[in-house]
Specification:
Length: 460
């Protein structure tokens, strides 16, 4: 008989128990809150669970015919990691309850207890499951949007088109651009567009791994491979099996390790530390660098033969200052992301705020813009982000509502701060060199730093 509209709206429960008196009692007492479908054998339960979607399962541990309750539990958990499963027994057996819990049971219920207690536990489990799925859906939504390569400029449109083209082949790609331009975002975009999208994306920051641990990080190690290696370790190539391995800042990879990476790229094989067995590497390799590759080769930080191997396709991301038409598009994109992440409802920016965003030069590129939007979101108390929340960029923007003299003074302060910061950056925070290049004494230079609110040590 077709289920009624009323039962269709209720959470569905699969009851698996060969005690027919108990099943009738459960169906009778739970019928107002749940749509309970009863079966009396484990094999029938598995077939039913595969054929239909259930919100929860009540499973008797003491089924007379094989498969028993624990076997049914194991098979259901292999198919669905989230559905609440309540194990039901005639008597208290703590050791069995513990084993069922280890196998993934949600809760344990003894038949002598009130059925109303079971109903309460099911409702609680379904509420927790619903919240868990909601969070997962939100995380998937945020992750999907985070790794979109956003922009309306001609440069970004071409980059997206080129990325979609190269995503369909396994050729190595070298992504270049200044820090914060979105090199990892572009790499993930290539991965998501590729036939490998359902497999792992593994990112390795070559600049952040100590040289002594790099080989282990990349290729893995056997237990006891060296002193202190008390456990085996899977390397990044193994973790990225079938997917994509992204080597960020490839020019910072230790020179001694670069020939080993080159060998993997050429032969498709590698071995773990402490092992002579060759393993096949089935990971598409993408690399990035914010350095000039040719300068890195000249300074011997990057091997020339490795460069030519990873440089089959080069994708260059221009700085944000060269594609100002992307600023507001990115700002609105980050605003939407932060609204989801922070649980806020901010609709957009005031015209004055948008003007500030467009006039700033963005030395930190998209990363700086994202951080600024998050900071503004934290302090925003209205439906739109106001200009005064966009510190520190508002300090140096045009002040059209100010008289000429005050506007000029603000503009000079902006220039002075930018000029001093650039000098310190070029001279790595060495005040004597910066003041000499500026043509002033160190005392004058330090007074200028104090006015601008800068510290030389921050640039070292």
């Amino acid at each position: 008989m077709p289920a009624s509209d009323d039962s269709m709206r209720k959470p569905s429960v699969l009851l698996v128990d060969d005690d027919r008196d108990f099943t009738r009692t459960v169906q009778l007492l739970l019928r107002d809150a749940f749509a309970v479908h009863a079966v009396y054998e484990g094999a029938t339960a598995l077939a039913e669970f595969q054929a239909r979607v259930y919100d929860a399962v009540l499973l008797d541990l003491d089924l007379a015919q094989a498969p028993d309750g624990l076997d049914v539990l194991r098979h259901i958990r292999e198919r669905d990691l989230q559905v609440p499963i309540f194990m039901v027994t005639r008597t208290e057996r703590p050791e069995v309850a513990l084993e069922a819990g280890r196998m993934g049971a949600t809760d344990y219920f003894t038949k002598g207890r009130p059925i109303e207690m079971l109903a309460h536990r099911i409702r609680t489990a379904l509420t927790i499951q619903m919240e868990h799925r909601r969070r997962e859906a939100l995380e998937r939504s945020v992750a999907g949007k985070r790794w979109c390569f956003v922009g309306d400029s001609d440069a970004v449109r071409k980059l997206r088109a080129d990325a979609e083209t190269v995503s369909q082949v396994n050729s190595p790609v070298l992504i270049t651009g200044k820090s914060g331009t979105g090199k990892e975002v572009l790499a993930r975009f290539i991965h998501q567009q590729s036939p490998r999208a359902r497999k792992p994306f593994v990112a390795v920051n070559c600049a952040a791994i100590p040289e002594g641990l790099f080989e282990s990080e990349l290729f893995g190690r056997e237990r006891g491979a060296y002193t202190g290696a008390i456990t085996a370790r899977r390397g990044s190539f193994e973790l990225a099996e079938g997917g994509t391995l992204f080597l960020d800042e490839i020019a910072e990879m230790p020179p001694a390790l670069q020939p080993k990476l080159l060998r993997v790229l050429q032969s498709g094989e590698y071995s773990q530390i402490g092992s002579e067995r060759l393993r096949s590497a089935d990971a598409r390799v993408l690399c990035s660098t914010n350095a000039d590759p040719h300068e890195a080769i000249s300074s011997r930080r990057l091997r020339e033969d490795l460069f030519y191997r990873i440089n089959v396709v080069t994708l260059y991301i221009p700085p944000l200052s060269e594609r100002r038409e992307d600023v507001l598009v990115l700002a609105k994109h980050f605003l939407e992301l932060k609204c989801q992440e922070l649980g806020r409802n901010v609709e957009g920016f005031t015209p004055a705020a948008e003007s500030l965003l467009l006039t700033y030069h963005w030395p930190g590129n998209a990363r700086e813009l994202e951080n600024l939007i998050e900071r503004a979101m934290v302090f925003c108390r209205s439906s739109r982000i106001e200009a005064d929340l966009l510190s520190p960029i508002c300090e140096g923007a045009p002040f059209l509502d100010l008289p000429w003299e005050q506007a000029r003074e603000r503009a000079m302060m902006r220039f002075e701060r930018s000029y001093l910061a650039a000098l310190l950056h070029v001279h790595h925070g060495v005040a004597s060199l910066a003041s000499e290049a500026m043509g002033v004494t160190r005392q004058t230079f330090y007074r200028a730093l104090k006015r601008a609110g800068l510290k030389a040590e921050d640039f070292r």
